[in-house]
Design goal:
By secondary structure, this protein is an alpha+beta fold. The chain has four helices and 14 strands. Helix 1 crosses helix 2. It is globular, with a radius of gyration of 18 Å.
């Protein structure tokens, strides 16, 4: 089989991520996302602003940074409870509430559980999947093309803005609840398998080309993308650590 065939690419990436079956699934998804993203429906009346970013800018560049671009790490399906779970410990009453992703503020059906890969910083490649928390990326049911919005929190960047957009690709976005160009402090939200509004993607690319001294900023509840299909992926982090998105006391309070 030629080395540039699809089958050959699957085997090579399977060895890289540590599981051929997992990568087969991810590559099939990636191919579908690419086809759908070209048909993205722009959000009506979309207007986006920018805010200054606390220095320094991210290093390596955002698209190559495994803390900003989740595709660098990859993730694998795992078994477990596809429902809200009750964890011990304190909670932050100001934490982002993930129901705010949806216009009807629903608790969506949990469809698939994933484990995100760790990152080997010395070798600059994905490591084994994270064992804690149990679930580091949550697949939830969506209606194709439904509008997705910024989950509200008790934090603000000022001037009515809620999050900075640290990374955008046509099918994924990384939102940060502080003005820092990293995941070190505060909350970070990754949303996968979406169709990012073309206007937001264009503004992000212009900000990236301008050196990232300013980045797009979004308001609570502001639309930023549409669901590509019947499932989106959600990963939430606190001070860089992946948290379990199923946690009732943290991300789904009062449900």
């Amino acid at each position: 089989m030629p080395t540039n065939s699809i089958g050959s690419r699957w085997r090579q990436l399977g060895a890289w991520l540590g599981g051929t079956a997992v990568v087969l699934t991810l590559l099939v998804t990636s191919r579908a996302i690419t086809a759908t993203a070209q048909e993205c429906i722009p959000l009506p009346d979309s207007e986006y602003g920018t805010l200054p970013v606390n220095p320094p800018p991210t290093d390596p560049p955002a698209g190559q940074h495994p803390d900003l671009n989740l595709a660098m790490r990859g993730y694998a399906i795992t078994a477990g409870r596809r429902e809200l779970i009750n964890l011990n410990g304190d909670s932050d009453p100001a934490a982002p509430q993930l129901a705010g992703l949806f216009g009807d503020a629903r608790t969506p059906t949990f469809t698939t559980l994933y484990k995100v890969h760790d990152w080997d910083w010395r070798l600059a490649r994905p490591g084994e999947v994270l064992t804690r928390p149990h679930t580091s990326l949550l697949g939830v049911a969506t209606i194709p093309d439904e509008v997705l919005r910024v989950p509200d929190s008790g934090y603000t960047l000022g001037n009515g803005f809620e999050v900075l957009v640290l990374y955008v690709a046509p099918t994924r976005v990384t939102l940060k609840y502080t003005a820092d160009d990293n995941v070190v402090e505060g909350y970070t939200l990754h949303v996968e398998n979406v169709c990012v509004d073309p206007a937001l993607l264009a503004l992000y690319e212009a900000s990236e080309a301008g050196g990232r001294s300013r980045l797009p900023a979004l308001r609570p509840g502001q639309p930023f993308a549409r669901a590509l299909g019947s499932e989106i992926g959600i990963a939430i982090r606190d001070r860089g650590s992946f948290m379990d998105p199923r946690s009732r006391k943290d991300w789904w309070q009062g449900r």
